[in-house]
């Protein structure tokens, strides 16, 4: 019995999962509205013999499938939400949005969920074929882009009996996903003032739009006095109307605040809230807030990272061919030299001119440039030992959240990358099932970290998933 058995099982099941990925690509849905996408994943779980829990923790677009009996529980995490404004015709290396609402899979989550399910199917079949005690679970997680569903799932007990978790993300490079991310929260600030005629009675009006703009000024001055790797972004959800001769009585702005960890995040949030109060005081308006989401930073696990690296190196690079490289080069031609150089720097490996697709496994000792985003996998990693991979699925230099990434989501190279990383994830699960000492060591490392800094859910008490949210901004 060796790891290559699990790779063969993944190959045997890959066809339907590639088809699933392409179907999800063709029905892009936003944060907490992934009803068709979730239904497709749910049907696939039933079709492959999983025991299915729908409406997981009360979230209609969350689903969990379990297979196996007894033993440890290993979770494999999937996603299937899309992004607004990133629709694009498949395989076309020029901006050509598809008809419809403009939503597109500009972060590759159509691939993410399908590869994770493929890994879970292969592990399920391996457990059964070898009569090994243990359970594998596929978690279909919605709303990673702005809704923090995994944080709500963790808070509400969906991972209470899980022993370890495995995940991945589409990338330009194939390797370990370094456990670096920023904690963040999204908060809506709604200012309410008083409408009036802007010319005849301006003195009677109290402008909510003025309050939003003054808040922005205050936050922008704050940027000089916060940690250099913290980030604050904002988007106007309601600017108060389209009539300049009416003093705007209501306006809403959404702030996204990021920091290295939850402690630092909470400090920044307190300061931003004070600025909003000041803006309301200056304009004689009222301000109300609503926390939309909040996620923790990622917590690494060296034991599992070493297991993942060994599996990636045994597999080797994704088997792209000359046609894949030629198609990727077409998309690279739409990018700047800085786009491409930045991608190599973020991977931590020397740039090689003329290389359109990753043909290496990024070494464990690579020194990537610290350009950090956020993910709700962070909260899972504080609950259970967690490891992630990056799977090469698109041309080097392709920006995340771009039409170029959407356009490559159904190409053969994307399919090859998702199958390859599914094998790596399945291999990690098999290694943990076969060697109880590995899982015990991973859990011991996690417990040691928790003893120093216990997990505190960043979601405020009483916060609920924003199921009606229509904007993943």
Keywords:
single chain; 473 residues; alpha/beta; seven-stranded mixed beta sheet; four-stranded antiparallel beta sheet; 11 strands
List the helices and strands and how they pair.
Layout: H1 3-25, H2 35-47, E1 51-54, E2 63-69, E3 73-79, H3 109-130, E4 134-141, H4 149-155, E5 164-171, E6 175-176, E7 183-192, H5 208-222, E8 231-238, E9 250-259, H6 262-283, E10 286-295, H7 302-315, H8 322-332, H9 337-347, H10 377-383, E11 386-392, H11 403-407, H12 412-434, H13 436-452
Parallel strand pairs: 3-4, 3-5, 5-11
Antiparallel strand pairs: 1-2, 2-4, 6-11, 7-9, 7-10, 8-9
Helix pairs in contact: 1-3, 1-12, 3-12, 5-6, 7-12, 12-13
What does this structure look like?
Helix 1 (3-25) crosses helix 12 and helix 12 crosses helix 13. The model has no long low-confidence stretch (mean pLDDT 95). This protein is α/β, with parallel strands linked by helices and 473 residues long. The strands form 2 sheets. The chain has a 7-stranded mixed β-sheet, with helices on both faces. It contains 13 helices and 11 strands.
Rg, Å, rounded: 23 Å
Question: What form results from the Cα inertia axes?
Answer: globular
DSSP helix count?
Answer: 13
Beta-strand residue fraction: 15-25%
Segments where pLDDT lies below 50 for 5+ residues?
A: none
Helix content: 40-55%
Instruction: State the end-to-end CA separation.
Output: 47 Å
The main sheet comes to:
7 strands, mixed
Mean pLDDT: 95
Strand order of the largest sheet: 1-2-4-3-5-11-6
Alpha-beta content class: alpha/beta
- Note the run of SSEs as H and E: HHEEEHEHEEEHEEHEHHHHEHHH
Number of DSSP-assigned strands: 11
